[in-house]
Amino acid sequence: MNLAHTTVLLWVWGSLQAFEIVEKENIFQRTPCPAFLMFDNAAYLADMSFELPCHCKPEEVPAVVWYYQKHLGSSHTKVLTDFDGRVLTEAAQVRVGSDMLVRFSIRMFNLLVFQAQPEDSGLYFCGSRKGEYFYAYDVDIQSSQAMVAAFKDQGQEPFVDEYHGSLHVFTTFWEWTPCDRCGVRGEQWRIGLCYLQSPNLSPRYRKTLPEVVSCGSRAVPRKLQAKVKDHPPELLVRSCMVPCEKQEKFGQSIMAIFNYVSKVGSRPWVPQVPIQFHQQRLGHGLIISCPGARPEHAVAWDKDHQQLYRTQYLKGVNRSMRVFIDHGNHLHIRFAQLTDRGIYYCWRQGVRIAGFRLGMTSRGRHKASFSDPETRSAVTLTLIGYLLITAVFITIHLCRCCCYLFNCCPGFPPRIPLPWL
């Protein structure tokens, strides 16, 4: 009977997977591919992950290949495929700054790009191995480096719309996130991306609204791109306060066991959330990520009992900040000090889900790597210093040579011609 039950369960599981694939293929049977290839405009913020569905393909094509071009008609085309034994990419395995060729995955004919960067902006084509194109996207990844934050509690407001003749530049905001904490004062925010409206857009790009595309779209003519480059993405932040939902206490059975084996009058400390331990070298940088969080999630950070609000710790609020939260919800600690020791708690969508106990040590070797931002910064500063010293040295010697040749410096004696022999 157990073998029979197992066989039935495996058959049902396989049938469900086959049903999902058949449903996907039925969608392709009902959706014919366009006779003239158009580009769907889509805009995202840097460090976000996005998915591009392949809405149509011929029935005889069993699998798709995605292609990438920086500009339409470019001679350099990247081929994005998961065939020939390529391992599927998982979001947890992606490192910031990696090339797009190791940050994508194709699942059920759809393209997934993890931690997108502004360099990933361009045209994406869903096609076949033979180079046939079925569906296309115009993707605009807007940089968060110049993002401007406005705090509603301080009376700050977003940018006003810009008008340049028939060109209208404005910010389109997403929905407010949920409150990032419960039981205490929290924050919520909304991301705004740059969009424009103009009658001079290329007709080959499909718009959500008439004559409206994102500012980095390939549909924008070059003469208009210079007028929209100074309109950065925006972030609105406001305070909120919500009660915590009643939940069963974490680890009640574990607490019962600990209370049984512990001494009378003493109770062991049991964390309310999973705690990860980490030893950090003094003077080195550290980046902490919230498990399972994405840039569009409501994420908050606490150090022990101190709330790290974005009003004070958001990246860009103060250029001299050593501890800050970036726009991808990561917590950065630059040049770690002894005062950084403690437990850092992570909230996701209003629920505290994890903690990081951070300790400091002055021992151990740190392997330098160019993938480390601090290593790259140190090498860059060193090279700049050498270049400046070389430039000053050459300039001084050129000045001395000029003074010697033209006798224009009082410190040099006049040249005396040598007699001919």
UniProtKB/TrEMBL annotation:
Keyword Plastid: no
Boundaries of every Ig-like domain copy: 268-346
InterPro entries from the UniProt entry: FAM187A/B, Ig-like_dom, Ig-like_dom_sf, Ig-like_fold, Ig_V-set
Keyword ATP-binding among UniProt keywords: no
Residues in the signal sequence: 1-18
Membrane topology designation: Single-pass type I membrane protein
Entry's family note: Belongs to the FAM187 family.
Full protein name: Ig-like V-type domain-containing protein FAM187A
Source species: Galemys pyrenaicus
